[in-house]
Amino acid sequence: MSLRTTPFHPRTGPLSEGQAWRRWAGYVVASSYELSHDREYHAIRNSAALFDVSPLYKYLVTGRDAARLLDHVVTRNVGKAKVGQVLYTPWCDNEGKQIDDGTISVLGDQTYRMTSADPTLRWLHLNASGLDVKIQDVSESTAALSLQGPRSREILQLAAERDLSSLKYFRLTSAKIRGIPVTISRTGYTGDLGYEVWVDAAQAVPLWDAIAETGAPYGITPAGMLALDVARIEAGLLLIAVDYFSSRHALIESQKSSPLELGLGWTVATDKERYNGQAALAAEGKRGPAWQFTGLTVDWDSLEQLYADVGLPPRLPSQAWRTSVPIYDRGGHKQLGYATSGGWSPLLKRYMALAHLGSAHAEPGTEVRMEVTVEHRRRQAKAHVTALPFFNPERKRG
Amino acid sequence: MSYDALVIGAGANGLVTAHYLARAGKHVLVVEQRHAADPSADIGWVPDVVIRDLGLARAGLRIEQPDPWITVPLAGGRGGGGTLELSRDIGRSVEAIRHISPSDAAKWPEFCNRMRTLAGVLERLYLVPPPDIESTDARELARIAGLGLYVRRRGKQTVIDLARILPMSITELLDDWFESDVLKGLLGALGIWHLKQGPRAGGTAFNFLHHHAGSPAGVFRPPRSNVTQALSALPGVEVRHGERANVLAPNGRATGVVLEKSGEEILAPLVVSSADPRSTLQPVAIELDPEFGRAVDNIKARGVVARGTLTLESTPAYSTLCIAPSLDYLEHAYDDAKYGRDSATPYVEVQKTDGRLELHVQYVPYTDGAANVQRHQALQLRVAQVLGAQPSQVKLHSPDEEELQHGSTEGHLYHGELTLDQILFMRPVPGWSRYRTPIEGLYLCGSGTHPGGGIPGAAGRNAAREML
Amino acid sequence: MKQYDAIVIGGGHNGLVTAAYLARAGKSVLVLERRPRVGGAAVTEEIFPGFKFTMFSYVVSLLRPEIIRDLDLPRHGLHILPLESTVTPMENGDYLAGWADHDETRRELYRHSPRDAEAYDEYGRLMHFMAQAVKPILGMVPPDPTSFAPGDLAGLLKLGKHFRGLGAERLHALVKLMTMSSADFLDEWFETDVLKATKSASGIIGTFLGPRSPGTAYVLLHHYMGELDGVFRAWGFAKGGTGAVSEAIASAARSFGAEIRCDAGVSKVLVRTGRATGVVLENGDELPAGIVVSSLDPRRTFLQLLEPEHLPSHLVADIKRFKFRGSSGKVNLALDALPSFTCMPGVGRQHRGAISISPSLDYVERAYDDAKYGEFSRRPYMDIVFPSMIDPGMAPPGKHVMSIFVQYAPYNLNGGWTDAKREAFGDAVVNTVESFAPGFKSQILHRQVITPLDIERITGLSEGNIFAGELALHQLFFLRPAPGWAKFATPVRGFFQCGSGTHPGGGIMGASGRLAAMRILKDGK
Fold it and tell me: Could you give the ipTM of this predicted complex?
């Protein structure tokens, strides 16, 4: 036996030049198709990058109490959302600690599609006691492509033969691409103009062909997870099991985070009935979260100096990293927090990181020190707290 | 009309809670789904303190502790081989046992004393809320230490007995002491009361002691009483019959109940349910932490007892007739239940109270509606055969009917089996043993809470004291 | 004649561990083993030329890592090979498999129940915590709750603090594990019957209980503890069989200066004025020693090696009451070829892991029903491994050995065990396997059937109980083997116990042997 491949594998498989694959939710997906992920990254910001995001967990929630169930589970107000709307939302346990985050698409009256990073079927069922609702795991039967970049709209308009300029940020519409029924949502994980296309798994390959062929003149580039990782850091987007731990996986209390500590305070509804974690989040909101999730920009001169001290030119990480790195105060002694993701932004030309900092030290502009290893020795580079996202182009919402 | 407190269920525990609340000056309404009071006897120890506090003696309370307390036909057929009768008087029982086993007779007094001491420890635990072992409160810790000290003062043997015997099976316990199948059968039967377990199951020794609580040394069947009737006769509490009520709890706070038939809402800041935890809480599941909901769903309440009546032409001489000729007989009866069948040879006990003959038949597993008329008739026939009676003289009420008519989950009379994982601070669900629920203003006071079924009024009193 | 500081009776793994620790601390130690080889129930024997059988105990998961480190067992030849999958053939021709890879296992479970696939992760996490919660208890000398001695009070207090430190959720889960049946405990998590059956099977191993009997959930945990330390993921198979584990410990003991004498059965412990002074061998020789340690089970330690007058009468009564009730047998086969299972035809990686014959809860429960009334299971629960697939040295090239752990085979069989009954039992086992792997019977070259009576006869374990006394709640911790005598000492001064019949007991764990040695060394100071 081997790992599962996604419905797009007949196309993505042959594209892989270096056989660089990684696991995602029990599937294999491309780390990068080309030997280096550079071109794939630049496609996101310059033309259009095509990602296979099929491994996402997807659930179809239908029935009279569908909204009630989702409202019981997630922190945002699902009942208020209109058909065609997509909500990004976290969900929590009863103590207000985050379990996962994902999206809820309002596909119709009493019909919702929820995506998650971890399997969520059991949790939904546990919450559905006594409710008139049907929960279907459509993870396998639904394939998904993500088309991200400044030219994604033009490509998709051509492919779907319709105007998408009226499809606003975090809205969805149904459409046909070469006769294949799809749902197009204006969503993504890059912080750029972009869309996700949801399709029945059986139609995955023709859909890929349609989009790839239509996009060829516009520089469409199949892209893998390495490129995506850089883009999502620029966009300041969280990654579960990297930037935070699901409270249901955490081994100890301190591994858990609340949405308020993860910069997701805006998703915590105050205008709906009881939901998991509501009371705890209200109390936390009142006293203020202990942690903040924020950006850091490493000071170039400081970094360069550290390398210069040992007689080397500055070295930058060639890929985004996802390890825990201690952050200290400007004196370099007291630990204020830790960074969980970081890397060089080829676009912004800066060394950025995502970090958890004690609330008292999370004000943008605050000077801190980040640990860097220079020639086998631990050093500290100067860095400044930076508001997220690092990159937020007009076209994302425009 | 406004009330200070609403109590769901006019059984012994519901009424006890209601009267304690009323005595504390609260205006209380009890809502009961049955149209009329249940005529059957209450089986179990009614704690003296409840009788005293509520003046039940004046309200016509009658407690029967029959003597001899059990009659068992001996091999050789009904009547043919004579009977074994055990009495309250230990000496008389010794004499009776001597006929079947001199060695068992010799051990009887010591056995009775050891069991009495252990039951005494349980009695002390039962009349107070269960120890909160997670508490950091100095008073609670002192209370737990006090309980520990109490046990240790009973002597080294008691400490060892508690640790050894509680997790044991009743078979192991009885095998340690006795050789006679008849004696072990009649004693062992008490160990499986209302459990979907056989006598070889760990924890049945505890169940045996649980049902010994409140009885004098040497008597291993709980007393019978009319305590629910007596409570119903007490003034001071309003009772509405024939109404099934569900808790109202918008936004996690109990505000009253809604009557199922009329949809009428009755409001009160305090709602207490003596119904079983699952049927009380499931309708308000949306207000609960799903993990708590899961714990409630996981309460084991697998009804296995059919209750009923026996109609004979003449009143028999015995007070309690027990058909459980050996531990293996009970184990075989359980084997059927394991695979979802009614026992081919069930354990049957006839209890005479006020001239009525009531039946306890085990095992008749809950089937969630799968049981049909044929199956019921077959059971009736078997029980009649076991008793040497006519099928028409046997009327039975299966766990399925119990659930259908009275709403107790899976027809379990105790609202949750008395297994070691469902007692003390684990009852009704771990961490919520203090009669509270995550819904503010909603309390539980039924058999599903500590100390559990078979002790009418104890949970009701403990719960009321917690609320007050 | 040489006067030893300590004589250890019995060269099973616990006896050897005690001897090794005592020798390591500078004591002169002699181990006396009745059989021609060390190992007790952890032996590898070449019963048929070229085929090496792990006679009794066949897998390793619990051996305490501190023992491996302290005695440097890898240097003495210990090599644990992974045994990571479990395949359960079902009666409808399907199967349930657990593989080493998490994603793969999840996908397999998902096939049976999407919800169970998710519950499995949470369940695994909980059991991990539970094992962690119990681990310190395995490593402590049980305090006596009936005693008012400062040491016991401090021990109880430490224990209380430990449990309270777990937090409510885990404490409750622990209470459930200690009291529930494995079937009920698993019911709270899963809906797939075959999954519950296979998991619960590890809760009945070595017990005279069925999956629906309370108390089995704890044994479930006992079998999870091996998964705790990264070194020993899940189950392992010792290269050379479990006998190699014994040999490694023996080699370590010798390296510290211990002497090991085989073919030297002990008949009595010499007691003078309430103090052990040495032992009498079965051949009548007397060997003096400063202290004597017995790794035999409690019945033989107290009732055979000592005279009743050396013991208080209540202790004699307690030990007589201590339950053994052996319930497991073993069938070892030499095979011409590997069997092909209907659910997963051919030869493949399924043969490198365990095959569990536990197709449904009712199947396992029925197997217990037979035993309850004194018969061996007509269709037994079986845990099968093919040691030669993991360690090719166990059989001639191209041939295989098959180790079948079988339950239930009651020690007290109706009418008693006879040669004919043993073969009938062997037939029941083989026929049951055949029903899941047609053609299997024709692949058998040699067969060895071991009943609990054989286990008792060969290893000396009373009633053939593989844990030297049932792992029931009322026989654990300060009650193992008897209240007041759970701290490895005995009423006879200088005479100690160190076998699996003492806390924590069971499995090739070695914890009892180590704790006993610690206790003895502390006493000597």
Answer: 0.93
